[in-house]
Amino acid sequence: MTSFQPLHILAFGATGNIGKHIVNQLIRANPPFPKISIFTSANTVLNKPELLSRWKDAGVSVIVGDITNSADVKNAYQGVDTAISCLGRGALEHQFQLIKLADESDTVRWFFPSEYGTDPDHDPSSAHEKPHQVKRRVRKAFAEEVKNLKPTFLVVGPYIEMWVDGGPLKDAFGGIDVEKKEAALLGDGEQPIGFTAMEDVGKAVVAALQRPEVSYGKILKIASFTKSARQVLAEFEKQVGHKFDVKHIPLDDAKRLEKQYWDEGNPLAVVGTLRRIWATGGAVYEKLDNEDLGLHPDQLQSLEAAVRNRLNHVAF
Ligand SMILES: NC(=O)c1ccc[n+]([C@@H]2O[C@H](COP(=O)([O-])OP(=O)(O)OC[C@H]3O[C@@H](n4cnc5c(N)ncnc54)[C@H](OP(=O)(O)O)[C@@H]3O)[C@@H](O)[C@H]2O)c1
Questions:
Q1: What is the mean pLDDT of residues 114-135?
Q2: What does the H/E/C string look like for 218-243?
Q3: pLDDT attached to residue 168
Q4: Domain ranges in the chain?
Q5: Ligand 1 neighbourhood includes 91 CB (under 6 angstroms)
Q6: Which residue of 10, 51, 84, 87 sits with most ligand 1 atoms within 8 Å of its CB, as the best mutation to test the pocket?
Q7: Which CATH superfamily is domain 8-156+196-223+284-293 in?
């Protein structure tokens, strides 16, 4: 199967944060994939008409259905050999049914579960991290139950775009407010982190599809660049030409708040856990698969380019 070439790709969750980038890169792939379809909800058809119309114009087939309805999914799988799940955290549980139906189908042989983030099996502590539990069970299902299809799991660490803007939790778990020229660094900010730009996640999916000999049945680890929070901040300061106000968040304070959020059932607890994992070495890897996938540094975003892209959206 290592010579397997995808002829018909179906993406779930395609219109979401990372799905958009994956589909955009699938459309741009050279040589082109013969057929690209997406499976989306009726709600998204109503809410994102421009995006869907642009994709249809680019030759993408849009299938409308409910991922929890087996008949809809079985119909959508007809003739599909490769399924790519980009479902959001709230929908990860639905993947078990999607994988089962793919395994039972006559045609689907390759499945990319929705990962595109922190390795849920990075080290022994990963087994206890709450945000990893569904992704770990998906990996286990492939190892123990799935018979007729292989997975590719793509680990990419934090998206640089989302990591920079800590949003309302910046002062609790870290982030950089570019407009206000303020930064909150979790811990000492010296820990290297493997960051990936969202566009590069799409490129990595395409590279994996084009090189089944590297990716079929594998866990792949990708990063656009590996830098510390301090280095990211320094690049912003350099390009803006101004020092930022910097505060450090003690790791113990962040851990206390993280625990409190989990105890209260606050969904923002996930952010705290992931940021704590990244700040303590959970997104650096012994070996990256960039080169094996043909993703050379000049094809991926550099820190300089990522910061430039972010600053292009700033009105000082
Ligand atoms: N590395 C990072 O920094 C990072 C950051 C964010 C996310 N991630 C990971 O990336 C993956 C995708 O996350 P995302 O943020 O891109 O997803 P998202 O935008 O929240 O959702 C993606 C799509 O999934 C479908 N969906 C979402 N919630 C659903 C629900 N409750 N029921 C049914 N369908 C639902 C919707 O598609 P349709 O309506 O079209 O069906 C939606 O557009 C996840 O595995 C997540 O953990 C990583």
A1: 97
A2: CEEECCCEEEEHHHHHHHHHHHHCCC
A3: 85
A4: 8-156+196-223+284-293, 160-193+226-279
A5: yes
A6: 87
A7: NAD(P)-binding Rossmann-like Domain (3.40.50.720)
